[in-house]
Amino acid sequence: MGKSHREKDMGCKYYRMLMFYVPIMYALETRFLRRSKWGIFIWATEYLFPVIITLFLIAGMEICNIEVNFFLAVMGVYNFYEIGYIQNDCETVKKEVNPTLRVSSAELVFYEKAKFKIYGIRLILGVVFSLFFLIDGVSWIILLFFWLIIPFYMLYNNLRGRINLYLILPLAIYRYCMPVSLVVYNYDVVFWYSWIMLVVAYPFLKFLEISAGGKSLPQEKWTIFFLKKYDDRFVFRVKYYFLITICVLFFCLLNKETPFLWYIPLYYFILRLLQLKMPKLGPR
């Protein structure tokens, strides 16, 4: 019985160490599941499904032919994005008085011993992903932005104060919009409308919420006109998505366009209503 438990603990230990190398695993362990046992489902509803909806708006049924590209795009984005997570959790915490601890002391020891290997493997994976997308026809300009997240996140991790607030928006835009940019690269009007709608639907709203006092940052004075305090964000989200949905629908009808753009805010509107009714879905 004792041996079985030891083996199980070792398995969990090695699984946790593996997260430093495998894309999405680190976010899964330190972000999604740390939030709640519903973490993966919440991540899928708040991130994966809206990105898929955006791809469908742009590519239509051709999305069925690019599922491998989409999977690799999400893996590639998280491969680089998690470098920022790892640096924040293992390096930035050393400089903080009351840091948020997302990894154990044993994992920190492992990180210190293997940090060059961890970052090296992440960079090699980045090269492999980049070669795949380059061969597939992705512009080198998009690939440049694909890589720029590394120095940008390092800048974010090494700065503290109000400036971090304004760096959160481009970080969120990268995470949501880069997979779309890597998979669909016919940059027509539909692409840009859908891309902007995705930004408005989540990254911009997240920026507004954090500006109201999230992440232990002081509240920006201009937020009091629509969100008096951070704790009111749950109801504010529902009102925000309802307003955006109506505005987009009106815009499409006014311009005699098919109201496809309203699918994204409508999806979030329904999701936030459900989260208000079912707290287990994890609104935060």
Q: Can you walk through the features of this model?
A:
The structure is a single chain. This protein is mainly α and 284 residues long. It has one domain. Helices cover 72% and strands 0% of the residues. It is built from 11 helices and no strands. The protein has helices at 2-18, 25-35, 39-59, 67-90, 105-136, 140-158, 162-183, 189-201, 203-211, 233-254, 263-277. Helix 3 (39-59) crosses helix 7 (162-183), helix 3 runs antiparallel to helix 11 (263-277) and helix 6 packs antiparallel against helix 7. 31% of the residues are buried. Mean pLDDT is 86; it is low at 1-11.
Structural class: mainly alpha
3D shape? globular
Helical content, roughly?
over 70%
Largest sheet: none
Distance between the ends: 40 Å
Number of domains: 1
Low-confidence stretches: 1-11
- Helices and strands, in order, run as HHHHHHHHHHH
| Radius of gyration over C-alpha positions, nearest whole angstrom | 20 Å
Q: Please report the total strand number as a whole number.
A: 0
Query: How much of the sequence is in beta strands?
Result: under 5%
H/I helix tally: 11
Average pLDDT taken over every residue: 86
Keywords:
284 residues; mainly alpha; 11 helices; 72% helix; globular; disordered N terminus
Topology diagram in text:
Blueprint: H1 2-18, H2 25-35, H3 39-59, H4 67-90, H5 105-136, H6 140-158, H7 162-183, H8 189-201, H9 203-211, H10 233-254, H11 263-277
Helix pairs in contact: 2-3, 3-7, 3-8, 3-11, 4-5, 4-6, 4-7, 5-6, 6-7, 7-9, 10-11
Quick gist of this model?
This protein has 284 residues and is mainly alpha-helical.
